Amino acid sequence: VGEKPIHIDNELLTAREKEITELILKGYTNEEIADTLYITVSTTKKHVYNIFNKYGVNNRMSLIKTLHYK
Predict the structure, then answer these.
(1) How far apart are CA 30 and CA 35, in angstroms?
(2) What is the pTM of this model?
(3) What is the full DSSP assignment across 7-66?
(4) Is 25 exposed, middle or buried (0-12, 13-18, 19+ CB in 10 A)?
């Protein structure tokens, strides 16, 4: 049976947060996200924190589950 597609809410997230969410879903670490997007790890962590708050989760696994079952 096919998996349900992942839904990233374009109205909830900023364009940068959406980029970061897509990289989180690919398994990137904060350091890898920072390197890929040419931002600092500190900035990456702030974006990840904001994404978690917007989805009401506190870790990557919960975010992935939330996006999978939305």
Answers:
(1) 9
(2) 0.88
(3) ---TTTS-HHHHHHHHHHHTT--HHHHHHHHT--HHHHHHHHHHHHHHHT-SSHHHHHHH
(4) middle
Residue among 45, 65, 43 nearest 55 (CA) = 65
CA-CA-CA-CA torsion sign (35, 40, 41, 44): negative
Per residue of the chain (70 residues), what is the pLDDT tens digit?
A: 445 567 787 789 999 999 999 999 999 999 999 999 999 999 999 999 999 999 999 999 999 999 987 6
Q: Are 30 and 43 in contact (CB under 8 A)?
A: no
Distance CA 56, CA 66 (A): 9
